[in-house]
Automatic annotation (TrEMBL):
Organism: Microbacterium allomyrinae
Protein name (Swiss-Prot/TrEMBL): Phosphatidylglycerol--prolipoprotein diacylglyceryl transferase
Molecular function as annotated in GO: phosphatidylglycerol-prolipoprotein diacylglyceryl transferase activity
Biased composition regions of type Low complexity, renumbered to the chain: 308-325
Keyword vocabulary terms for this entry: Cell membrane, Glycosyltransferase, Membrane, Transferase, Transmembrane, Transmembrane helix
Transmembrane feature ranges: 27-45, 57-77, 97-121, 128-146, 190-208, 215-233, 245-267
Originating gene: lgt
A GO cellular-component term linked to this record: plasma membrane
Amino acid sequence: MINAAASVVASIPSPSISYFDLGPLRIHIYALCIITGIVVAVLLTNRRLTKRGAEPWVVIDISLLAVPIAIIGARIYHVVTHWDFYFGEGANPISALFIWEGGIAIYGALIGGAIGAWLGCRWTGIRFWTFADALAPGLLLAQAIGRFGNWFNQELFGWPTDLPWGLEIDYPNPAWPIGLPEGTLFQPTFLYEVLWNGLGVLVLLWAGRRFRLQWGRLFGLYLVWYSAGRIVWESIRIDPSEIFLGIRTNVWAAIFGVVLGLAIMFVQNRRHPGYEPSPYVPGREWKPDGAVQSQNTDDFVDVSEPPTSEAGGASATSAAVSHTP
């Protein structure tokens, strides 16, 4: 057991507030972190899709479906993995609907968001894997920003520690582990994930350009990177969780995320060895001002940037419309 006297050499303080009132409206900082992450992800995804040749701000149309369904999926996943909180003895099952009281899960958001994005891509004509690749760095950055909400809420922290970057948690606190003395410091899992995700954004941006990861391969790399880190952070968290075969359910989800990401990269590399000819499915191409139709294909070439030849048999036209992964 670690106590304050042995550990307070240096530490990370927790914010003293988690919300503020604006007139009759209560603003939760966690919600602001989530919203900020969504906005940043939309802006970065729009930039990447536009550089690929997509209509500017088509990401908004896709997000109108993806974001709400992602939130629903995140809540459903949280309720299922914390079943006793809502349906156990003495619990109020109706509280499963009270999403404003907190309780969402990223893997549920990924499942719901993928469904919503697929529907949005069908609606707009954007290739689903093109959108997923464009989204991957922004999504990881949004997750890094969102983790600051856990810091403000003083929740989801890790084991007790005497490390100089131990996290201070107010006492008493509903999340305080029974039996630990006041002044105990904890592993700042929120910070670990922020740093890991921030580094991952740089890795994805570099790998996407260096290896021209298209057809969903960059999104597969995102799943591998994020899930590999989540296996570690989730394993040292001490908040209650359903356990399956001695392992937290979110660790199992992270293991599945790594396997799924590797599978996507392998299968898509076998199925699509070349580059994407367009961010749009055939027949749904957007015709921007200043673009002319190729005489030999149905693709449209941006005349402001001359095409260049590509290795691996890719045509000059394909190169012009797929210069950014």
